[in-house]
Structure formats: C-alpha cells, structure tokens
Amino acid sequence: MGLRIHFVADPHGWCCMGLIVFVWLYNFVLIPKIVLFPHYEEGHIPGILIIIFYGIAIFCLVALVRASITDPGRLPENPKIPHGEREFWELCNKCNLMRPKRSHHCSRCGHCVRRMDHHCPWINNCVGEDNHWLFLQLCFYTELLTCYALMFSFCHYYYFLPLKKHNLDLFVVRHELAIMRLAAFMGITMFVGITGLFYTQLIGIITDAIKKVKGQLTEWEKILCI
C-alpha cells in the first residue's frame, strides 16, 4: 500500500524540524571538513569511512522527510466500519467522528489518528499506525549518525596522529576547538534524547506484543474449555 502524503501547518513544528535540519547540516558539512577529509589526505583513515558517514547522513535525512510527510493514519470523515467490528468503534468527543479503539485525537493536527503514539514536534507530525515504522527508522539512523560523529570527534583529539597541514586562513581551522565543542554538545544531547526515546518505543512495542499473545492465549483457553 502506497504511503499518503500529509502536511501539518504548525509553526512550532516547523521551528523544531528546522532546528533538527540545522544540526544535521552542521555535522554533514563540518565533521568531514575538519576531521574526515584532513585525516584521509594524510593517510590516517581509509576513504570508505567517509562514504559510510555520508551514506548514514543521507539515510537519516530521507527518514526525517518520510516520517514528516507521511500520513500517520488519519481517519476519514465518513469511515467505512466493517459490520463485525462496530462494537470496537467509538465516538470522538472532539471531532464527533467514529473511530476505532486505540485511536486518539491530536489537537495540533485537528483529527483522529489510528493507534496514535504521540505528536512529535521534531518531525512536525503525529506518530501513528502508518508511519510508526518510519519514526523508528529515523530514531535508528539518528542514533547511528550521532555515534559515528562523536566517535570521530573523540578520535580526532585522542587517537589519530596530529595533522601536519593546517591552513589557518580557513575559518573552520582557526575556530576548530569551538566548532568541535559545539558539535560534541549537540551530539551528546541528541544521543541522550534519542536513546531515551528509542528505549521507550521498544518497550512499548514489546509490551504491546506481550498483550496480544496473552489475549490470544485467553481466547484459546476459552475455546478449549468449551
């Protein structure tokens, strides 16, 4: 099934998403310029590490765009309710539309979303049934990119051999320490935040799976008792 495009007109969400894009661009441009390319030119690292960095960064940006513009599971105004599932539907007291259970109304988006997890301002979209897997992809690639950038920042000062060529005419070289400290601060902040979010998402998925298994076992017990 193709993914439906969905946009949310929320200035607060646009600002949050713009901040994420700024952090991505900051690392996408400056980490290779200060760390990767100079150490590659002096033979300290192989070129494949640069390719891997750019590959992860592009995957991360694509995941951000897809999670942001994909319909999370918006319910239509006149949904077709299967005859055998009417008892599992309820009336939303905010938009006065019928919705299946485990759906929630998002005040920012202004509509109900199937199996809504939460509204994430960092992607300016709800996380629901149809884009939850894209949100998990974004968390995974962001975690990977952050760890990769932090690892090279650490190696640049404490593991790699000192660079022999320094072009002091470049702004990034003159202010390297300040730039790398800011990159490290943003990286650590992103790593801690995404790790906590990723952990809660995985716990929710595991808990939901256990509930489904218990429900199926209960149904089988009733059948066997009959």
From TrEMBL:
<keyword id="KW-0808">Transferase</keyword>
<feature type="transmembrane region" description="Helical">
    <location>
        <begin position="179"/>
        <end position="206"/>
    </location>
</feature>
<protein>
    <recommendedName>
        <fullName>Palmitoyltransferase</fullName>
        <ecNumber>2.3.1.225</ecNumber>
    </recommendedName>
</protein>
<feature type="transmembrane region" description="Helical">
    <location>
        <begin position="43"/>
        <end position="65"/>
    </location>
</feature>
<dbReference type="InterPro" id="IPR001594">
    <property type="entry name" value="Palmitoyltrfase_DHHC"/>
</dbReference>
<dbReference type="GO" id="GO:0006612">
    <property type="term" value="P:protein targeting to membrane"/>
</dbReference>
<keyword id="KW-0012">Acyltransferase</keyword>
<dbReference type="InterPro" id="IPR039859">
    <property type="entry name" value="PFA4/ZDH16/20/ERF2-like"/>
</dbReference>
<dbReference type="GO" id="GO:0005783">
    <property type="term" value="C:endoplasmic reticulum"/>
</dbReference>
<dbReference type="GO" id="GO:0019706">
    <property type="term" value="F:protein-cysteine S-palmitoyltransferase activity"/>
</dbReference>
<feature type="transmembrane region" description="Helical">
    <location>
        <begin position="138"/>
        <end position="159"/>
    </location>
</feature>
<keyword id="KW-1133">Transmembrane helix</keyword>
<keyword id="KW-0472">Membrane</keyword>
<comment type="similarity">
    <text>Belongs to the DHHC palmitoyltransferase family.</text>
</comment>
<keyword id="KW-0812">Transmembrane</keyword>
<dbReference type="Pfam" id="PF01529">
    <property type="entry name" value="DHHC"/>
</dbReference>
<dbReference type="GO" id="GO:0016020">
    <property type="term" value="C:membrane"/>
</dbReference>
<feature type="transmembrane region" description="Helical">
    <location>
        <begin position="12"/>
        <end position="31"/>
    </location>
</feature>
<dbReference type="GO" id="GO:0005794">
    <property type="term" value="C:Golgi apparatus"/>
</dbReference>
<feature type="domain" description="Palmitoyltransferase DHHC">
    <location>
        <begin position="89"/>
        <end position="208"/>
    </location>
</feature>
